[in-house]
UniProtKB/TrEMBL annotation:
<dbReference type="GO" id="GO:0006631">
    <property type="term" value="P:fatty acid metabolic process"/>
</dbReference>
<dbReference type="InterPro" id="IPR000582">
    <property type="entry name" value="Acyl-CoA-binding_protein"/>
</dbReference>
<dbReference type="Pfam" id="PF00887">
    <property type="entry name" value="ACBP"/>
</dbReference>
<dbReference type="InterPro" id="IPR022408">
    <property type="entry name" value="Acyl-CoA-binding_prot_CS"/>
</dbReference>
<keyword id="KW-0446">Lipid-binding</keyword>
<dbReference type="InterPro" id="IPR014352">
    <property type="entry name" value="FERM/acyl-CoA-bd_prot_sf"/>
</dbReference>
<dbReference type="InterPro" id="IPR035984">
    <property type="entry name" value="Acyl-CoA-binding_sf"/>
</dbReference>
<dbReference type="GO" id="GO:0000062">
    <property type="term" value="F:fatty-acyl-CoA binding"/>
</dbReference>
<comment type="similarity">
    <text>Belongs to the ACBP family.</text>
</comment>
<protein>
    <recommendedName>
        <fullName>ACB domain-containing protein</fullName>
    </recommendedName>
</protein>
<feature type="domain" description="ACB">
    <location>
        <begin position="10"/>
        <end position="92"/>
    </location>
</feature>
Length: 92
């Protein structure tokens, strides 16, 4: 299998995992949701280069902190980790 085929396969797996994350059979914890968010953003956007939200935006700060925690992870690595994490959550 060529690299381009592998990349397409992983892209389709990532999209399937993103769809599956929206239909989990239980409500994930806040930490699990933040990890899903951070890996998704890293996989789709890359490193967080935005300013940290203000003092009163607690949810925004938590999401910003989670995304920044995976900084320097490659987009392909973030996709692979996201797929594996969604698979883990589906077993719960």
């Amino acid at each position: 299998m060529e690299w381009s085929e592998l990349k397409l396969e992983s892209e389709s797996s990532f999209e399937e995992a993103a769809a599956a994350a929206k239909t989990l059979s239980y409500n994930p914890s806040n930490d699990e949701l933040l990890k899903l968010y951070a890996l998704y953003k890293q996989a789709t956007v890359g490193d967080n280069t935005t300013a940290r939200p203000g003092l009163l935006d607690l949810q925004g700060k938590a999401k910003w902190d989670a995304w920044t925690a995976v900084k320097n992870k490659s987009q392909d690595d973030a996709k692979a980790e996201y797929i594996a994490f969604v698979a883990e959550l589906q077993k719960k």
